[in-house]
Amino acid sequence: MRFRLRAQAAASRWETLTVSIWAIGRSSGNSANWLGSTGFLPPPLTTVQRRAEMLLSLGLDAVVVLDTNAGLLGLSPADFYELVLRKCLRGAAFVEGDDFRFGAGRQGDTEQLRAWASRDGLACAAVSPVVTDGIAVSSSRIRQLLSNGEAAAAAEVLGTAYAISGRVEHGQHRGAAIGFPTANLTDLATLLPAAGVYAGQATTVAGSQHAAAIHIGKNLTFAAARPRHFRHPCSGISLQGASMRLDWAAFLKLVHQSERFVLTSHVRPDCDALGSELGLLGILEAIGKDVRIVNAQETPANLRWIDPENRLESLAQGVKPADLDDRDLLVVLDTSAWAQLGAMGEVLKRNRDRVVVVDHHVSEDDLADRWFKDTTAEATARIVYEIGLRLRVPLPVGQWRNLSGRRPARRCRCQPVFHLSRTL
Asked: 69 versus 131: which is more confidently predicted?
């Protein structure tokens, strides 16, 4: 399907966009409001973030995720086509699976989409499902394999190893005491394979990888009262697929305790740095905080469009270090290196006890004692987006465009829940 989509786009000089319909509630473990035809919504096979990463790695220009709220689910097939595909996303060509269904009650199908597209002079193509061992690849088939404990067979169908996503909680540290450190996963966001012990791989924040044994099930050795899920050994801070890289409770506590913020980033700022600053500024101001953005250098001329309200200040434009002494918290975004901060480095050294780093890069200097890093994030803007979700602050359309680092070409009335592009 991706090759058909890219070929169609290349021939017409269009951008390729994938739309993913996703029950946002189930990503956080709350699926009570999202009922399928069987009366419940099964756990997803991946997180929305991971799905977007994989789609973009195939060469698509962007991914839009629409939340399956009551309004969207209630749209008739005709309204979904007109309001979402045509008016909101400005679709010019469509590529779908031949079993595609859309609209309330799944009444719309590929043939209906093809008829409406043809009426409007648009292209529409249907793609047959991928078949392995004579059976079509589907989420139901993959779930069945995982439920049977057939992880290797599921990986062959998926084309990659299956990953578990969850939160790492503190255990009893018994494994570390005997030379086999473990990480205990809870709040799992994805489907759990059958109980057993699996061979897998653990990845540290620094990027080093280690062979790991993954135990799924009850901790019978120490008579645990509830199921636990272990990966060991784990010599670093985080595991691939586990949401343990950023201590959200500690970060949100800092935000709520502080009133006056200054945000800064590296010299020669790029779209990720500036978009992250502006996005976080909007989020913090939405909850009543006093926020300034001050960088060492002026915004590059080719990126000034990203700041139509002129919120980006700089030391080069006359801001004095003493002007920032009243700030409760100094947040460094998108860098962990002194050498990249220019003159702002001296400001941070004067106020080191008030400095916090939010970054996705692996390398780090001693900028601060408080680090909030996720090296698996594709950009710092991804972390800023998560901050907005945690603080329950939806980003306005203009701000998510800034986070994407791309010049807005047209206004869209339908605001996607999640947006990523390869330019981040």
From this structure: 131
